[in-house]
Amino acid sequence: MKLNKLAIATLCLGMSASVFAADYDLKFGMVAGTSSNEYKAVEFFAKEVKEKSNGKIEIAIFPSAQLGDDRVMMKQLKDGALDFTLGESARFQIFYPEAEVFALPYMIPNFDVAKKAVLETNFGKNLFAKINKELGMTLLSVGYNGTRQTTSNRAINAIEDMKGLKLRVPNAATNLAFAKYVGAAPTPMAFSEVYLALQTNSVDGQENPLPTIQAQKFYEVQKYLALTNHILNDQLYLVSNETLADLPEDLQAVVKEAALAAAEYHTKLFVDGENELIAFFKEKGVTVTTPDLAPFKAALQPYYDEYLQKNGEVGKQAVAEISELTK
């Protein structure tokens, strides 16, 4: 008798699960971990999609590069093996060299300009039309992902104070160029090694967005923070064209609207966080300086010239249209 009851209960449970199962089980892969602002925003996105689709769409999140790095996940979107991911505009330079413009130091002064550069310039529209057609993914929305600042073991009050500073940077062309052209000694190094290198003065400084500086506790081993504002990071919400095509129009609309809302929340998390973190670092005994950035930008002009030489007419168009946005 007990066995029959158990069998009936199991059958009922199976029936109720099937009644409430989603029509579309989708996957969102990302590099950032579960404690990040990015993860919070993607959770928001998944919740919005589920609610607004009345449970027809369920999104499972795979953080901490479980499915590979951003380049691997972009390929998975193209192949239809993954539904959503995040990616920076400048990251597309691995496919289209002209996309480097989005990370040229001091090219983009604020997020308003960054967003318009992607969505409103002819350069941005043409680039993302190519990405859609050739890489098989659609841009859903653009969020703000922080601005890179410089910590060091000595005060940086002016560009002259950068001279000879052994600055850890990721092995990326634009970050290396920033260090080189402002007079520092660029020192590429794995991210996992940075804290110890700062602690032992193997390097004199590093550069990252404020939330990263806090999360990695670099303030424990660096007592100076200069607001150099040299590279602004955006974050794009991307969907596989195959996934979008599989959804009926009403659910496509749900996904698009949820991505816009998630990007707004994403931006708010970073903006609010940055405002609060300045005070946090000061409380931790960090001296915060605000050097005049005009000489920093002027020092990068040779690198702008290199970009223009490499990218010809499309590069000229990118720089001209983005520069126009800053007037």
UniProtKB/TrEMBL annotation:
<feature type="signal peptide">
    <location>
        <begin position="1"/>
        <end position="21"/>
    </location>
</feature>
<dbReference type="InterPro" id="IPR004682">
    <property type="entry name" value="TRAP_DctP"/>
</dbReference>
<keyword id="KW-0813">Transport</keyword>
<feature type="binding site">
    <location>
        <position position="168"/>
    </location>
    <ligand>
        <name>N-acetyl-beta-neuraminate</name>
    </ligand>
</feature>
<protein>
    <submittedName>
        <fullName>Sialic acid-binding protein</fullName>
    </submittedName>
</protein>
<dbReference type="GO" id="GO:0030288">
    <property type="term" value="C:outer membrane-bounded periplasmic space"/>
</dbReference>
<dbReference type="GO" id="GO:0055085">
    <property type="term" value="P:transmembrane transport"/>
</dbReference>
<feature type="binding site">
    <location>
        <position position="88"/>
    </location>
    <ligand>
        <name>N-acetyl-beta-neuraminate</name>
    </ligand>
</feature>
<comment type="similarity">
    <text>Belongs to the bacterial solute-binding protein 7 family.</text>
</comment>
<dbReference type="InterPro" id="IPR038404">
    <property type="entry name" value="TRAP_DctP_sf"/>
</dbReference>
<feature type="binding site">
    <location>
        <position position="148"/>
    </location>
    <ligand>
        <name>N-acetyl-beta-neuraminate</name>
    </ligand>
</feature>
<dbReference type="Pfam" id="PF03480">
    <property type="entry name" value="DctP"/>
</dbReference>
<feature type="binding site">
    <location>
        <position position="208"/>
    </location>
    <ligand>
        <name>N-acetyl-beta-neuraminate</name>
    </ligand>
</feature>
<dbReference type="InterPro" id="IPR018389">
    <property type="entry name" value="DctP_fam"/>
</dbReference>
<keyword id="KW-0732">Signal</keyword>
